[in-house]
Amino acid sequence: MKKFINSVDSFLTESLAGFTAIHGDVVKLGDGGAFVRRATPARDKVALISGGGSGHEPLHAGFVGVGMLDAACPGQVFTSPTPDQMAAAASAVGGPKGVLFIVKNYSGDRMNFEMAAELYDGPTATVVTDDDVAVENSTWTTGRRGVAGTVIVEKIVGAAAEQGGSLESLKALGDEVNRRTRSMGVALTSCTVPAAGTPTFTLGEDEMEMGVGIHGEPGRKRVKLASAKAIAEEMMTAILDDLKPTGALGEEAILLVNGFGGTPSLELYLMAEMARAELARRGVKVARGLVGSYVTSLEMAGVSLTVSAVDDRLLSLWDAPVHTAALNWGR
Amino acid sequence: MKKFINSVDSFLTESLAGFTAIHGDVVKLGDGGAFVRRATPARDKVALISGGGSGHEPLHAGFVGVGMLDAACPGQVFTSPTPDQMAAAASAVGGPKGVLFIVKNYSGDRMNFEMAAELYDGPTATVVTDDDVAVENSTWTTGRRGVAGTVIVEKIVGAAAEQGGSLESLKALGDEVNRRTRSMGVALTSCTVPAAGTPTFTLGEDEMEMGVGIHGEPGRKRVKLASAKAIAEEMMTAILDDLKPTGALGEEAILLVNGFGGTPSLELYLMAEMARAELARRGVKVARGLVGSYVTSLEMAGVSLTVSAVDDRLLSLWDAPVHTAALNWGR
Q1: What's the whole-number mean pLDDT along residues B222-232?
Q2: Please, are residues A101 and A116 in contact by the beta-carbon 8 Å criterion?
Q3: Separation between Cα atoms, residue B73 and residue B76, nearest integer Å
Q4: What is the CATH topology of the domain spanning B11-179?
Q5: For chain B, which terminus, N or C, has the lower number of CB atoms within 10 Å?
Q6: Phi and psi for A257 in degrees, rounded to 5?
Q7: How far apart are CA B200 and CA A68, in angstroms?
């Protein structure tokens, strides 16, 4: 295992210490390191809290700040955070307007966030994201997996929360964005969880895992490596075939081209061009694009495409100011 | 070779097409794709132009925009751009106040930028960066290599250019920041240049290349993998031993922890914490930190540390607004 690490036990703690030290103007570490919260609390709004296993950085701690989350709870690598962490985060950042949990659809995460909602003494609601069209049910999931589309949900709901939205309206908005959003991923290599010390899975030199999950869960099929154009076409077909029947897809979409950690920028932008061309061919314009490693699987080489069908109202929320470690725009 | 690619010949062109399409509000492609320039030209200031081989993204095209570069010339992967590209960029973005070239110290880049300055019919000056303390002379360099410190030079000089600095003063400022800045890198894996199709070098499962260059050039030594703390200590010792004799290092520094492409965020922030602690132990406070993959070597796993000794004037230029694809802050 080749990693910059001192020990498996201190890996997450030391990384979080670095993250909060470097971004001290944006975030601080919650009590006992159980969560990351905004450096400047905002109690007069609904508090947005997300979290999940570590190893997907910058998701979620990188999205804590004005315009997105109020707190994020990091579990150990690829392991759900505990209900205690989530409840502590809710107590720390929740105010009278309530707490909205944004939860990727994995069984462990859902169960623990449900327990946290019971532990927390205040109004809560939960948005569950399940944007991955690759497979129904998976290693750690009943139903579809929640993947990179979660960033779009967190950004748009975060903007609406900043504008004073009620808990009920934000829950409805989050569910709506999730319904409008579809993703699919492909892996060229595996990743190695520090506590395991060996790769999660293995792929031949000429193979890729089409439809891979963000923990290396199996996808739809293991196939021969194909051209970037063919890969983008297959993924975009799967995404749009699933999105079109909802009736949500108009002429514009947000395109997120997400690297899993080990794929360089040149390749991500090349895939963005292939995805953009595929969308154009089908009459959909990329109204906004985001390209980078935002929902990762440690050092896995691979990419996911996410298409989110938007209207002017959703685009305006997407464009609203955001000031976090990983996304930063507007005043 | 596992990459998202259609053909070696179209690799760069397709990636640049994606980059300029996604960031059309910030950049556009220059004539014939020879360079990337600001979407909105600024002719009443000194024009800053950089460039070099591709494969180091976001350097340099990701730093084109308000507050940093006016144009960037991408060569093929790890290959210098041509004098024609640079001269075309200068003609496109240069105004009466002149053109400042910012050039990493590689023999090919320096020669070509010199020829471009001769081809261009207007006032020019050149800042050469050579911040890498690892080795003197290298595969493609006489003297020291210019590496991640170039980002700090481009940011600070870019801010001063925006404030109306003269060509002469910006040249002096760039040279000063370069003198105050030192870097060193380490690789855990190699990278594969698409046109070569095989890894640039090989490392054993328990080896690392200490002092590696950003094209995989040999460093100081090939040694057994060590703890993150030991790696940070060795690199910081080399950096500070070199920086201290200049007399520039006071109580504050900018720390850049740069990933080479294949190292995930969790490990970069862990290294940031180790580097921060090392600096603190030696009485230097991290006034500002930047952690991410900014000067990459395709998908190489590895990290470089950069320390730039700053004063209040330089910090204020660092904090000035910047709006590029890869760095974005301030109004």
Answers
A1: 98
A2: yes
A3: 10
A4: Rossmann fold (3.40.50)
A5: C
A6: -105, 110
A7: 41
The C-alpha atoms of residue A253 and residue A275 are separated, in whole angstroms, by 12
Separation between Cα atoms, residue A299 and residue A321, nearest integer Å: 30
Distance CA B324, CA B320 (A): 13
The answer on pLDDT for A98 being more than 90 is: yes
Closest Cα partner for B307 from B251, B236, B246, B250?
B236
The tokens for B324 are 């590029």
Residues A102, B307: Cα–Cα separation, whole Å = 38
Question: Fold for domain A181-311?
Answer: Hypothetical Protein Tm841; Chain: A;domain 3 (3.30.1180)
Which pLDDT score is estimated for A23?
A: 98
Return the closest-CA partner of residue B201 out of B217, B186, B213: B217
Which residues in chain A have Cβ-Cβ distances shorter than 8 Å to B291? Answer: 18-19, 22
SS3 A154: helix
3-state secondary structure of B226: coil
Give B 270-289 residues with CB within 8 A of chain A.
270-274, 276, 286, 289
Q: Does B261 touch chain A (CB under 8 A)?
A: yes
C-alpha span between B244 and B247 (Å, rounded): 6
With CA atoms as reference, report the closest residue to B129 among B107, B141, B145, B112.
B145
Domain ranges for chain A, please list them: 11-179, 181-311
Predicted confidence at residue B43, as pLDDT, reads 87
Burial class (CB in 10 A: 0-12, 13-18, 19+), A281: exposed
- Mind telling me the catalytic residues of A? 56, 215
Q: Are A261 and B264 in contact (CB under 8 A)?
A: yes
For B:235-254, CB contacts with A below 8 A are: none
Contact A161, A48 (CB under 8 A): yes
Q: For residue range A139-160, list pLDDT tens digits in order.
A: 888 899 999 999 999 999 999 9
Eight-state DSSP code of residue A299: T
Contacts of A110 (CB under 8 A, 6+ apart): A103, A128
Instruction: Compute φ and ψ for B185, nearest 5 degrees.
Output: -125, 165
